[in-house]
Amino acid sequence: AMDTDLSSQDRKDLDKFIKFFALKTVQVIVQARLGEKICTRSSSSPTGSDWFNLAIKDIPEVTHEAKKALAGQLPAVGRSMCVEISLKTSEGDSMELEIWCLEMNEKCDKEIKVSYTVYNRLSLLLKSLLAITRVTPAYRLSRKQGHEYVILYRIYFGEVQLSGLGEGFQTVRVGTVGTPVGTITLSCAYRINLAFMSTRQFERTPPIMGIIIDHFVDRPYPSSSPMHPCNYRAGEDNGAVYPSVEDSQEVCTTSFSTSPPSQCVFTVTKAHFQTPPPVVTDTLKVPVMGLAFSHQLSSSRLSYQPAALGVGSADMGYPVLFAGGLNAAHPHQLLGPGKDGGVPPIPSQPAHGTQADQERLCTPLDGVHYSAATPSSSEDTETVSNSSEGKCGSPHDLLETIFIRKVGAFVNKPINQVTMANLDIPFAMFAPKNVELEDNDPMVNPPDSPETESPLQGSLHSEGSSGSSTGNTHDDFVMIDFKPAFSKDDILPMDLGTFYREFQNPPQLSSLSIDIGAQSMAEDLDSLPEKLAVHEKNVKEFDAFVETLQ
Amino acid sequence: ATPAMNCRAEVLEVSVEGRQVEEAMLAVLHTVLLHRSTGKFHYKKEGTYSIGTVGTQDVDCDFIDFAYVRVSSEELDRALRKAVGEFKDALRNSGSDGMGQISLEFYQKKKSRWPFSDECIPWELWTIKVNVVNLANEQERQICREKVGEKLCEKIINIVEVMNRHEYLPKMPTQSEVDNVFDTSLKDVQPYLYKISYQITDSLGTSVTTTMRRLIKDTLAL
């Protein structure tokens, strides 16, 4: 029998329930991929703010991202909310691991009581989500994230795209809840083929290890030319481009840790910006036409440094996944140079960083005007349409990229208020305090730094828009910082948990990398003739020495 | 039909090493109870009530490559650990081949008038059949860690499937009836009334019943 339509109060309630359910769903999923154990307390007295009677914390950036993605809409038929979880290695390879889909189908249950049954079933569904998020393969991967890879999330609204999951992906249904306006379903499609794509798709993105080597290797032949681009960049026109030295300055080293993202800072090299990415700009327009997509690629463990224009020459702290937020239609490309081959390389190079590098990273922040990411009051369509123009009005637009350095759980401070002491990295207090120090640092500025400016630098100043997505910038990358439940030492701005986790996963020794091995071997081979000549000269001495041994 | 006739029965089977028994059982029981516990009810006048908040926490297993979510309630965790500990000891001491099962039953109380005692009417029964295996070397143990972890993932998915069917649940009770439906003895959460019992299968294949009725409630009543 046809029942009366939903009362307006019920309809309002239902919409509210679905909206908050969607937001809580995102929180549960993202929090389950941060790499830490989650713990919330039961409270016998209702606090009034715990939706669905469950203690699920709200990470502000995550809520913000989700709200942006939803843009005031609710999941409906054909309009699903998707949370994409992907993995990104330190070498720049990335792959999608899971897509969590919150969908609505047309099957209505008119009889069901909204304020009671639907609410309780949504609560049950969230509990199921809590349980299921721990049993897909990505959970264990996310618990081990650190120096080798990080786990990232992206929220989008619209059609579900599963093609990035590889062949044979599996699906697990979390549950369904019938409502008078349709049936909510929550499911997860996850990759089972975890083998990385074997071909390196990012020829122009050398492994970060190469760049770090440039930092720390003693140049045996000081008279030689400035550091060469890594082998991987062999195809480049060596003369033109970014001297690695300046790259090293611009490299924001990353040091991953398995702990709160306070240690995670992404490294990006300017190098990859030599091609201004018009395609990125173009694809920016895609989401603008049509639906109000707002796509952000957010790293759940990422703190990044926006382009630091005007700060000496160390101005290319580029958020790794910066461009990630741009392309709605091709989420894959967000994480790196196009699989389709047509998209120019997008910087996406987390690096193995050392402590020193990490500290160096932090310095350019001071004195630079960054606008902290504050949730824009205006809705997405406005910001998205801004970005469609492609060109920023000024370099500052580039800077408006998101940098949120969380100094405390759920605290959101503009970056220029974040002092070194607040930055939750070990030994932060001992980091160089300003850019000048960095300039004097011979490690950063080796004597033979070339004069040529990076073309990228130039293009940044002129166009001011390379790769920027103005409107979405401040939403693209968020960092979440949880404080572990360890006591904090008042002297050092570092707590035991952070320290422990940080050093639990040290970066690989550069001397163990193949590149440095290859490089030094090459140099060894080069020096062989010289050495042989020396030895031949002294052959009598060697013979005498051998005699004494016998 | 009364609930007893509609009592859902779900059976899960796991093969584990001796030292994995406790964690595997806790993982399953806690996952079920996560779905079958609410916040504490606070009745107000006119028959309305508000519900407290249930917190959750991740638990990592030491002997299994596995993690699960449980309700944040130390009382509940203690009660389950006690039951599982006894089950594990019984398994070890029985001299059996290491086969047994542990059951989690949700029931409603139906008050009867004197001289009849209250009836317990089960409406959902979860049975976990356990087979304890003995492993020869470290390599086998390592494989077992992973395999059991994968198996438990499947079990969690199975449990969630059952929960999602939204089948019979006791009606939300009035204040006077709440103790017939829920276990209100815990201070921070409120699971449906439940009892845990177990059986050990001896080597002859017959069941030696060692049932602990109302184990949890009795324990807490001390």
From TrEMBL, chain A:
Protein biosynthesis found in the keyword field: no
Assigned GO CC terms: Atg1/ULK1 kinase complex; cytosol; phagophore assembly site
InterPro entries: ATG13, Atg13_N, HORMA_dom_sf
Coiled-coil ranges from the UniProt annotation: none
Region described as Disordered: 332-392, 438-472
Keywords: Autophagy, Cytoplasm
Pfam families from the UniProt entry: ATG13 (PF10033)
Low complexity bias locations: 458-471
Keyword Transit peptide on entry: no
GO biological process: mitophagy; piecemeal microautophagy of the nucleus; protein localization to phagophore assembly site; regulation of autophagy; regulation of cell population proliferation
Main location: cytoplasm
Domain of life: Eukaryota
Comp. bias regions, Polar residues: 373-389
Domain Autophagy-related protein 13 N-terminal: 96-196
Subcellular location: Cytoplasm, Cytosol; Preautophagosomal structure
Family from the record: Belongs to the ATG13 family. Metazoan subfamily.
Matching PANTHER family: AUTOPHAGY-RELATED PROTEIN 13, PTHR13430
Name of the molecule in the record: Autophagy-related protein 13
Species, as recorded: Sagittarius serpentarius (Secretary bird)
Taxon lineage: Eukaryota, Metazoa, Chordata, Craniata, Vertebrata
From TrEMBL, chain B:
GO molecular function: protein kinase binding
Annotated GO CC locations: Atg1/ULK1 kinase complex; phagophore assembly site
Domain of life, per lineage: Eukaryota
GO BP, one annotated term: autophagosome assembly
Ranges annotated as spanning the membrane: none
Keywords: Autophagy
Protein name: Autophagy-related protein 101
Taxonomic path: Eukaryota, Metazoa, Chordata, Craniata, Vertebrata
Protein's gene: Atg101
